[in-house]
Automatic annotation (TrEMBL):
Coiled coil: none annotated. InterPro entries: SpoVT-AbrB_dom, SpoVT-AbrB_sf. It comes from the Bacteria. This is AbrB/MazE/SpoVT family DNA-binding domain-containing protein. Residues 4-50 form the SpoVT-AbrB domain. It comes from Miniimonas arenae. Keywords: DNA-binding. GO terms for molecular function: DNA binding. PROSITE patterns: SPOVT_ABRB.
């Protein structure tokens, strides 16, 4: 499933994704992509892949509940000051 492909940046910043990789990845003309800059280089993902990657990173954390709890603690501190 994994492969390494050498490509060359074209005019106006265009890259050609090899046909084999496009077919295997389900990439078609007009597919929205997300480019993420990392310390190791640039990662190209579809939006669905980016969402899945982010969900794996944050795990089961309920960010809304966490934020609300933090705000309640901060508000209680402000009321007590």
């Amino acid at each position: 499933m994994s492969g390494t492909y050498a490509v060359t940046m074209g005019d106006r910043g265009r890259l050609v994704v090899p046909a084999e990789l496009r077919a295997r990845s389900g990439l078609a003309e007009g597919t929205p992509l997300v480019l993420t800059e990392t310390p190791f280089g640039v990662v190209v993902m579809t939006r669905a892949q980016a969402r899945a990657h982010l969900r794996r990173q944050i795990g089961d954390a309920n960010l809304v509940d966490t934020l609300l709890a933090e705000r309640r603690v901060a508000a209680a501190r402000e009321d007590g000051a």
